[in-house]
Write a structure and sequence with these properties.
globular, 3 domains, 17 helices, alpha/beta, FAD/NAD(P)-binding domain, Fumarate Reductase Iron-sulfur Protein, Chain B, domain 2, 18 strands
Length: 460
C-alpha cells in the first residue's frame, strides 16, 4: 500500500503567474486508477461529506475503469462534481476521515471526483435521469452553489423550477468569486448546462426585492420559494483612510476580474481595473489568496498578504497557501493595518500597521491577536485589497421584514430549512453566514427535502 498520494501535474509557478489558465492539470486515466487503488473502501469518508456522496462506490468504479458509472454515482447526490472536485476543502471533510491519513496521506478523493467529471465532459455524454414532470412551480432565488443544488434536486423529482439571478450570468460566487485558474469557466458553464438540461429555467438580471417581490412570485403560481442569495456584502476594517482610491473590497476586485473579465482589457473586455504595485491584501482566507494571486497575474511585482495571526491560524486551504507562496506572494504575519495614508490626489500610498502577538483562544478556537504597544510602522502600498470576510446579502431581509432574522443578520430557518414565512425556505450563506461551497450545497439538499415534504403535507 502506497502511503503517498499519486502526484498530480500542475503548471509551473513561473508560467502560471502569466496566465489565468487552470493551475492543477488533473490526473490521467492511469494516475486516477493508481490513486483509486489506494482506497480501502471502508466508507468512513462519507461521514465527512456534506452532500453524502457514496465515495467508496464511485472510487471502486474507477478501479474497474467504469468512469461514466462512477460520475453517475456522484450525481445521485451532487450535481456539481467538476466544481466540487476543484474548490471543496476535502482535506478537512471527506479526506480527513480517511484512515490512510493516520500513517500517510489520505486518498485524493477530490482529485478523483474531478477526474471522472472531466472524463464525462470530454466525451460529451449527457446522461439525464429524472422523474416524470409534475405541474408544480418552485422558485429559487440565487444561482450560486446552494441555488443550483436545490434546483437540481427538485428538478430530478419532476418539479418545474425557475432560478432568479440578479447578475447577467448564473453561477453566483462560483462565477464572480473564484478565479479561472481555480475554476475554469467552461467547467462551470458545463455543470450549469447540465442543470438546465434537467429542466431548470434560469432568468438573469432579476433582482428579487426590487424587480420582483416574494408576493409577485406567489401570485405567479410558485408553490414554494427557496432563498439562496448568499453572503455578498463585503466587510471593511472601518479605519482611517479606507475610502482612498486604490483600496478595493475583495468582492469588487474579484467580481471585476472574474465576472467582468477586467484582466482581458483592452483586447477582450471593456472593463479595466487599475492595479499598482506594491499590493497588500488584508486577510488570509481563500478569498485573500485568490485576490493576491489575481493581482500577481495582473503584473503586480510585489504582493503581500497581511494577516494579524500566524500561518497556523490561516483559514485558507493549505493548497491555496502553498500555491500563493510558489507564485511569489509574500506573507507579513502578526500584523494589523490601523490606517491608510494617501497622497495629495487621494490615492493610497502607505499603510500604517501595528505588530500583534497571540493571546487566549477566541470563539473560533483560534488564539486572539493582541496589539503590541508602540510597535507601529509604515509599509508601501499603492493598492490595497480588503479580504476579511463577507456578510449576508441584506436586500431580501430588508425587502421582506416578515422574514425572521438571527442576531447575525442571517435568515432564521427551522429544522426543515423553512423560514418564518410558510412555504418560503432558505439555505446557504444567507443562513449560515459565509462558508464553503459544499456546506451551502448540503443545506440546499436538506431544503429540497423540506420543500417536498411541505408540498406533500399541504396537498399542493
Amino acid at each position: 500500500m502506497n502511503l503517498k498520494k499519486v502526484k498530480i501535474s500542475e503548471q509551473s509557478p513561473n508560467e502560471r503567474v502569466k496566465n489565468f489558465s487552470e493551475v492543477c492539470l488533473g490526473y490521467n486515466e492511469d494516475e486516477a486508477i493508481l490513486e483509486a487503488n489506494r482506497c480501502l473502501e471502508c466508507g468512513k469518508c462519507i461521514a465527512g461529506c456534506p452532500v453524502e456522496i457514496n465515495i467508496p462506490k464511485f472510487i471502486h468504479l474507477i478501479k474497474e475503469k467504469k468512469f461514466l458509472e462512477s460520475v453517475n454515482v456522484i450525481k445521485e447526490t451532487n450535481s456539481l462534481p467538476g466544481i466540487c472536485g476543484r474548490v471543496c476543502p476535502q482535506e478537512v471533510q471527506c479526506e480527513a476521515k480517511c484512515p490512510l491519513g493516520i500513517r500517510g496521506e489520505s486518498v485524493a478523493i477530490g482529485k478523483l471526483e474531478r477526474f471522472v467529471s472531466d472524463y464525462e465532459r470530454k466525451i460529451g455524454v449527457k446522461n439525464i435521469v429524472k422523474e416524470k414532470d409534475k405541474d408544480i412551480k418552485i422558485a429559487v432565488i440565487g444561482s450560486g452553489p446552494a441555488g443550483l443544488t436545490c434546483a437540481s434536486e427538485l428538478a430530478k423529482k419532476g418539479f418545474k423550477v425557475t432560478i432568479f439571478e440578479s447578475l447577467h450570468k448564473p453561477g453566483g460566487v462560483l462565477m464572480y468569486g473564484i478565479p479561472e485558474f481555480r475554476l475554469p469557466r467552461d467547467i462551470l458553464e458545463y455543470e450549469i448546462d447540465y442543470i438546465k438540461r434537467l429542466g431548470v429555467e434560469i432568468k438573469t438580471n432579476i433582482l428579487i426585492g426590487k424587480t420582483l417581490t416574494l408576493k409577485d412570485l406567489k401570485d405567479e403560481g410558485f408553490r414554494a420559494i427557496f432563498i439562496a442569495s448568499g453572503a455578498g456584502l463585503p466587510s471593511f476594517m472601518n479605519i482611517k483612510g479606507e475610502n482612498l482610491n486604490g483600496i478595493f473590497s475583495a468582492n469588487e476586485f474579484l467580481t471585476r476580474n472574474n465576472l467582468m473579465q477586467a484582466y482581458k482589457f483592452p483586447e477582450g473586455a471593456d472593463t479595466p481595473i487599475k492595479v499598482k504595485s506594491p499590493v497588500i491584501v488584508v486577510g488570509a482566507g481563500n478569498v485573500a489568496m485568490d485576490s493576491a494571486r489575481v493581482a500577481r497575474r495582473l503584473k503586480a511585482e510585489k504582493v503581500t498578504i497581511v494577516y494579524r495571526r500566524t500561518e497556523n491560524e490561516m483559514p485558507a486551504r493549505k493548497e491555496e497557501i502553498e500555491h500563493a507562496k510558489e507564485e511569489g506572494i509574500e506573507f507579513m504575519l502578526l500584523t494589523l493595518p490601523v490606517e491608510f495614508i494617501g497622497n495629495s490626489e487621494g490615492w493610497v500610498e502607505k499603510t500604517k500597521c501595528i505588530k500583534m502577538e497571540l493571546g487566549e483562544p477566541d470563539a473560533s478556537g483560534r488564539r486572539s491577536p493582541v496589539p503590541i504597544k508602540d510597535s507601529e510602522f509604515l509599509i508601501d502600498s499603492k493598492t490595497v485589497i480588503i479580504a476579511i470576510g463577507q456578510k449576508p446579502n441584506p436586500l431580501i431581509p430588508l425587502s421582506f421584514p416578515e422574514l425572521k432574522l438571527t442576531k447575525k443578520g442571517t435568515i432564521w430557518v427551522d429544522e426543515n430549512m423553512m423560514t418564518s414565512v410558510e412555504g418560503v425556505f432558505a439555505g446557504g450563506d444567507i443562513v449560515s453566514g459565509a462558508a464553503t461551497v459544499i456546506l451551502a450545497m448540503g443545506m440546499a439538499r436538506k431544503a429540497a427535502k423540506g420543500i417536498i415534504e411541505y408540498l406533500e403535507k399541504s396537498g399542493k
